[in-house]
Amino acid sequence: MEQQDDDQTAAQLGRRERQLLEAVYRLGEGTVAQVRATLPDPPSYSAVRAMLGILESKGHLYHVQQRLNYVYRPAGNTKRAGQRALAHLVRTFFGSSGDQAAAALLALPDAKFSPAVRRKLEQRIAQAQRQAQREDR
Fold it and tell me: Per DSSP, which regions of the chain are E strands?
């Protein structure tokens, strides 16, 4: 199957299709039973199998056969898909404000950052600022 087009995003899918696709991304790969086990109020096994097949036909997933099971995997680049999803989230909930989104992330109750992670974040912020300055020239 062809890989999904970059313009065709998970945002264009129905609620249940998004849930299934997100489950496969979270798992990295999964059988119908594994994907179904992650869903709230899961539909029947055969319904999940059919929907995974639809996502495959749309180019969002592909499968490999392991023994008797199909194992579904994301068809696209996971990092790029995450970036698109994050950009959508920032546009939708934070009015395209990266600083508001970052502040919200840092304010999460379970957001604990070690000194090493804080240094890495500071380096990335400095790098982004340098990049923005270069682009403004």
Answer: 61-66, 69-74
